[in-house]
Write a structure and sequence with these properties.
By secondary structure, the chain is mainly alpha-helical. It contains 6 helices and 2 strands, in the order ααααββαα. It has a two-stranded antiparallel sheet with strand order 1-2.
Length: 151
Amino acid sequence: MQTGHAEHEQEVDNVLADFQGHLNLIFARARTLWKESAARVHPDLQPSGYKLLSYVARTGDANAHRLAELFGIDKSMVSRQIRMLEDFGLLESRPDERDGRLRVLTATPEAQRTLATLRAEYAERMRAVLAELTPDEVTAASKAFRLLAEV
């Protein structure tokens, strides 16, 4: 009885190791994709700036404090990225109506258009890659990623 349990645990460990290996490849591919995407938005845009801009564009607005907290980045680095994004004409800021000490950040229309084009291209690539999965399998994968994001 004990041998069956040990074999099952080994099988689970092997499956988890394989899963983790694939996650590592996904993370490596994501870093490459962020770098390529940043360059398509602006030739001097860094991947970290691209991630901040993408978040602001997706959510509608944000502030530097929230971005630093969300991405685990030092506030001074976020401030430098914001200044660059503003200099590139990709981000606008205005005083927060509730707290004048804060600035509300929004993506410019140009940034929104460029990011929408990139999202559409990536969505098409994603559809092609995931076409062999059933909707239930995609839902299960999405649930796994959501749970991993909460760890």
